[in-house]
């Protein structure tokens, strides 16, 4: 199904994963055949939306051979992509799982510098695609070189064009975006703590901190992801803590992006906010049921969603 959703990934990656029997220093460890997947916040959101039956336009910088591989992987998945060429190569991440104890080792490489002319091209591409878009989803970290207020500029653009901005990021970029005002903000507990200036948050103080953030900043909806404890939905009119269903966890990679995909899908298909947060939790939880860098299985997510609706 075609949709009017645009996703933005400023720090995309190739996720390379494998398994070994055990991990020991100074030993040559025989790895299984590696698996390559397109990665990065907005890209994973687009991939998640595709699993739910929605097509999104995804914008990202791409450079070098890893950038070419990234585009090939997305093409195989049928993702509508708009890449901006960069001088520096696209980064790669490496994930290893020990089969003896199911422990996961994640090696995240730093994002490569984006130059000013490349940043301008990324903004222009978003400006071009955002006209008529209902939702713009900016997810993931900012690489070196990108101005810290870049997402704030995207927020101003979406307001001008009448789109709704969904942001899932961290650090200074998160502060700038929140200050400018967005439709939906998805911080985790650490990010909400940073924004609110409260060092320790429990269930009650999470709601208070998010409510204060909405009263102080021009943000409409805040969904605080709380890992296995679920999520907290807060608007100026109401708040709700929604526990996550209990499942056998195999990996947490991609759970946050899956949650965003679930929420954007729900919003795009006319669901209310209570249904939206439950679809997000269902997709995020379903992602933890898979090994390695796998996103959620649609059937798992829908089954979990149905269970959450009954609570």
UniProtKB/TrEMBL annotation:
Top-level taxon of origin: Bacteria
Keyword ATP-binding attached: yes
Gene Ontology cellular-component annotations: cytosol
This enzyme's EC code(s): 2.7.1.-
Keyword annotations of the record: ATP-binding, Kinase, Nucleotide-binding, Transferase
Listed GO MF terms: 6-phosphofructokinase activity; ATP binding
Coiled-coil ranges per UniProt: none
EC top class named in words: transferase
Domain Carbohydrate kinase PfkB, first and last residues per copy: 15-295
Keyword Metal-binding: no
Family annotation (InterPro entries): Carboh/pur_kinase_PfkB_CS, PfkB_dom, Ribokinase-like, Tagatose/fructose_Pkinase
PANTHER family registered for this protein in UniProt: 1-PHOSPHOFRUCTOKINASE-RELATED, ATP-DEPENDENT 6-PHOSPHOFRUCTOKINASE ISOZYME 2
Family in the record: Belongs to the carbohydrate kinase PfkB family.
Protein name as annotated: Hexose kinase
Organism: Hufsiella arboris
